[in-house]
Design goal:
Blueprint (H helix, E strand, L loop, with lengths): L2 E8 L3 E8 L4 E5 L4 E8 L1 E6 L4 E5 L3 E5 L4 E5 L3 E8 L1
Antiparallel strand pairs: 1-2, 2-9, 3-8, 4-7, 4-9, 5-6, 5-8
Amino acid sequence: MESNREFLVENEKYKTLFFKFEPTKGIPNHTHNGYASIQVLDGIVDMKFTDGEEFELNKGDFLPFDARKEHNVIARVTSKVLVTIIK
């Protein structure tokens, strides 16, 4: 993973992270034990699930999802996103 990452909140219930991804960079396939959301603050990212579901997320988009499904996030352009993971 090549990004700038900052933990904004981390407690026993959830964590919220800020990422800045350079083009073609992001987070490779992974899972979490619960639910999550992603919000694009700037840029465009592709989010793909290994079950075939795909999303193009643009500035302002917000997507809650079942993070137990394997997924990845890859930036098309320099992008800033917030990710919240429920523990």
